Amino acid sequence: FSIPIEKRNDSQRMDLLRQMIRPFILRRTKEEVASDLPLLTEEIYYSEMTDEQNKYYEETKNFYRNKILQDIEEFGEKKSQLYILSGLMQLRQIANHPRLTNPDFEGESGKYKDVLETMQGIIQRGHKILIFSQFVRHLELFKEHFERSGTSFAYLIGKTIKRKEEIEEFRNNDKTQVFLISLKAGGTGLNLIESDYVFLLDPWWNPMIEDQAISRAHRIGQQNPVFAYRFISKGTVEEKIRLLQARKLKLFHDFIDGEPMGETSLTVDDVNMLFA
After folding, report:
1. How far apart are CA 268 and CA 276, in angstroms?
2. 270 partner at 20 to 30 Å CA-CA among 14, 78, 222, 224?
3. pLDDT digit string (tens) for 26-45?
4. Are 202 and 115 in contact (CB under 8 A)?
């Protein structure tokens, strides 16, 4: 089914597969369970990279693009997947802040500055914010900033030992208005309705994971409108990931209208698009 549907958009194969899996799917959406949830507003915040950041990004992109296309031609798509993902990982980290890949980088990051400025206005108005990233080092940059500035915050990653204490600190202390959370450690299973703003610092291949992160605040019991900001660095692979998300998500919704069945391997067409 995969090739006819993904490559040729074969409607007959799509209908057949839909009929085959229908008896095994039972799903209740959040909207069906809690139709009285408050308004959720989602926005994409596009950040301009600094000149130093852009130069570093372009150098890295050109290196990986040439190497990957050469490897695909020589070894094929499947055997090149690890190198493709390695290159994409580097570019995604640089789009956040070059210091994620090069601790000695002395320049600034456009996204980093935009996040801090946006955050400051929200904090001054008395709101609480959940800040999600896949990259622990990215969260550490903000953690270091808060420690220098004396800003109270909570912090939750996979290695956090006192998980419950961090959650209670954020929920019960009015002065703790920021919660830094790694996507894998806090994407599910948390009720954090004390917050009404959610920052997603970097796009994930699976958009459902992002939705689960937003649902930490937008859930039963929330009394306030919730605002979710996705931060994207302009002219980077992050914009391309958004395009891939939309394409893959359409297939998911065509069949199960919910949780994706897993990540899909990247093809040479995907590589050309991502590294263009």
Report:
1. 12
2. 14
3. 666 666 666 678 999 999 99
4. no
Rounded CA-CA distance 257/244 in Å is: 17
Q: What's the whole-model pTM score?
A: 0.81
Could you tell me if 112 and 139 are in contact, meaning their C-beta atoms sit under 8 angstroms apart? no
Buried-exposed string 88-102: b where 16+ CB fall within 10 A, e elsewhere: bbbbbbbbbbbbbbe
Distances, alpha carbon 179 to alpha carbons 56, 85, 195, in Å: 30, 29, 9
Measure the CA dihedral 189/214/37/22, to 10°: -70
Distance of CA 146 to the CA centre of its chain: 22
- Burial of 118 per CB tally in 10 Å (0-12, 13-18, 19+): middle
Q: Pick the closest to residue 169 from 137, 134, 128 (CA basis).
A: 128
